[in-house]
Amino acid sequence: MNGYQLTFYTEQHRKHGHLSVCDWLLQEVRKLGIGGATVVGCAEGIGHAGAHHAAHVLQLTDQPLQIIMAVTEEEADRILDVVREEHVHVFYTRSPIEFGLLGDDAPEKTRKHFPLFHHRRPT
Predict the structure, then answer these.
(1) Cα–Cα dist 24/20, whole Å
(2) DSSP conformation class of 104
(3) Helix, strand or coil for residue 98?
(4) Which one of 13, 45, 89, 96 is CB 3.0 to 4.6 Å from 61, fit for a cystine?
């Protein structure tokens, strides 16, 4: 399938309303029924205004983030329209790509397990 890789660039601390820009974008992606998005936390970067942004050991609020998705042309247009309508100040790139799924069997849907928070007691 042909479509686009849509990548949004932001920082951990940037907000839109009461949500971070990253969380807001992920919420909108779900609402639009877009198949998925990946958030990549980066070590450091230089923003469009020339400011240096970096994740620090004790504080991650200035950490650069990328929100990446493979989408159809229609999906790309819809999410970009929502961002424009909401007046979210965020840099993005839109690159043509080919994408699809390989393999015969679909992955099993599993419940997320957070081992630090849910300890199993021996029986």
Answers:
(1) 6
(2) S
(3) strand
(4) 13
Q: What is the pLDDT of residues 53-102, one digit of tens each?
A: 555 555 555 678 999 999 999 999 999 999 999 999 999 999 999 999 89
What is the CA 70 to chain-centroid distance, rounded? 11
* Domain boundaries, given as residue ranges, for the chain: 2-98
Judge contact between 97 and 4, C-beta under 8 A: yes
State whether the Cα torsion 69-74-78-81 is positive or negative: positive
C-alpha torsion angle, residues 35, 18, 45, 73 (rounded to 10): 30
pLDDT at 55 (0 to 100): 58
Look at the chain and count its residues. 123
pTM tops 0.90: no
Burial 74-111 (b: 16+ CB within 10 A, else e): ebbebbbebbeeeebebeeeeeeeeeeeeeeeeeeeee
